[in-house]
Design goal:
Layout lengths: L5 E6 L3 H10 L5 E7 L17 E2 L3 H4 L6 E4 L7 H10 L3 E4 L2 H17 L4 E2 L2 H4 L5 H5 L6 E8 L2 H13 L3 H11 L7 H4 L2 H15 L9 E2 L7 H10 L1 E11 L4 E12 L11 E9 L2 E8 L3 H18 L19 E2 L6 E11 L4 H11 L4 E7 L6 E8 L2 E2 H13 L3 E10 L2
Parallel strand pairs: 1-2, 1-4, 2-3, 4-5, 5-6, 8-10, 10-13, 10-18
Antiparallel strand pairs: 7-9, 7-11, 9-10, 11-12, 14-16, 14-17, 14-18, 15-16
């Protein structure tokens, strides 16, 4: 007797949707019965695509009574939220890659899913093709995870790697990345850290078993990173990466953020280059582990989406409560630390007048703001009698560092603070 096929509806047939369609063709127990697209007349390089199942009305997908699982692959807030809500209320399980929706309205969408006894899986929404959601929810469930450091955006990692390798400016590398298709025409979501912030919000929520509110996630992009900073970092034994991090302290406060960071050459993340992504977790009893791989792309992301589809499909008809370990079962909202109250090490690049007492002035300002220095190096005295000075601090409070920067900018000895970048501890 032939088993019943699981009916799938796709919303979106772009890069990821196309990969999902192509991948699912090799599974006999899965049938895609409807696909919603924005433009039905667009030519698509998909062999054997049945034009009869394509619609430009996504509500036809979520309201189709024969569909078991809806895959939302269009991204953004609306109409994605409304479509997922209606699909759940119509009895569909959900697979999504929508990191923004999960970060901003995940609480609502998971509550709706639980009320209607439906599952939402989202492996592709955090690290593309890298399996991280299911490992955290299942095989790592017995761990108390205390720290995450991750490279979660391929565009910014590509730009920073090219700046490092070529010694080129941010603007030049961004232009090249746009021409190659690695960066969008409007790259704001990537280069200003929004994309990584959405992802670390969801990942930290899972890892800490407390809900992280996106508005409490500190975010800073890579647009101020200079080629000179790359060179200085190399001289000091570091690489500069856009790091999404999350820590839970002994008092139960979460520190969740995205910003450029000097990463030690001894760290695995320092060697994650170009569009590759990686997630490093620290927990007990597992210790320290890193998972790396492609964080985006047609087939890597499709791998995660299809894995979620098959996980749901395997349970359909076998139980009244699917995949209990994968459900959102934490209601407590995490207390988050304001960035000003965090302790960090810092790299500063300061352009100063080449006068006697400049180094002493910098040291005095730091001392007045409770900052100790690990190293201070002056080089590159230019024709106009200015010098570039590189400073690495010991651990100090962010608020003290910001006060010191204001004092530097008012000092008669100092022309400009070129860069302030936090350093991995």
């Amino acid at each position: 007797m032939e088993s019943k096929k699981i009916k799938i509806g796709l919303i979106g047939l772009g890069t990821v949707g196309s990969g999902v369609y192509k991948t699912l063709q090799s599974f006999d127990n899965i049938e895609i019965v409807k696909i919603a697209v924005k433009n039905k007349n667009k030519k698509r390089n998909i062999e054997g695509l049945d034009e009869n199942i394509i619609t430009d009305n996504p509500y036809e997908v979520v309201e189709d009574p024969e569909i078991d699982i809806v895959c939302e692959l269009i991204g953004g807030m609306e109409p994605a939220f409304d479509l997922i809500e209606k699909a759940i209320k119509n009895g569909k399980h959900i697979v999504t890659a929508n990191k923004e929706l999960l970060a901003k309205r995940g609480v609502e969408i998971f509550d709706i899913a639980e009320a209607y006894n439906r599952v939402i899986l989202y492996e592709a929404a955090v690290a593309g093709g890298i399996p991280i959601i299911m490992p955290v929810k299942t095989i790592l469930a017995g761990n108390k995870i205390s720290k995450i450091e991750a490279i979660l955006n391929g565009t910014t990692n590509y730009i920073l790697t090219k700046m490092d390798v070529q010694g080129a400016s941010y603007d030049d590398v961004l232009k090249e990345a746009q021409e190659l298709g690695y960066a969008e025409t409007d790259p704001t979501g990537d280069v200003e850290g929004f994309d990584a912030a959405y992802k670390i919000t969801t990942l930290a929520t899972l890892a800490f078993k407390k809900r992280i509110n996106l508005e409490n996630v500190y975010r800073e992009g890579i647009t101020k990173v200079r080629a000179e900073d790359m060179n200085a970092a190399n001289d000091l034994g570091y690489k500069i990466k856009l790091i999404a991090s999350a820590k839970m302290d002994e008092n139960g406060y979460a520190d969740v953020r995205v910003h450029p960071m000097l990463i030690s050459n001894q760290s695995t993340l320092a060697h994650i280059n170009y569009v590759t992504n990686a997630v490093s977790l620290t927990g007990h009893p597992v210790g320290h582990i890193t998972l790396s791989g492609p964080g985006a792309g047609e087939f890597p992301t499709a791998s995660s989406v299809v894995g979620d589809i098959l996980s749901i499909a395997a349970e359909l008809g076998t139980t009244d409560y699917l995949l209990p370990m994968m459900r959102c079962n934490h209601k407590e909202i995490a207390n988050c630390i304001n960035i000003l109250d965090t302790q960090n090490k810092y790299y500063l690049s300061i352009n100063a007048k080449n006068h006697k007492g400049v180094i002493g002035n910098i040291g005095n300002i730091c001392a007045e703001n409770n900052i100790s220095l690990e190293s201070i190096v002056q080089k590159n005295v230019s024709d106009n009698k200015t010098a570039d000075i590189t400073v690495i601090t010991e651990l100090c409070l962010e608020k003290d560092m910001q006060n010191a920067v204001k004092a530097f900018e008012q000092s008669e000895f100092i022309n400009k603070v070129n860069s302030l970048i936090r350093v991995q501890v």
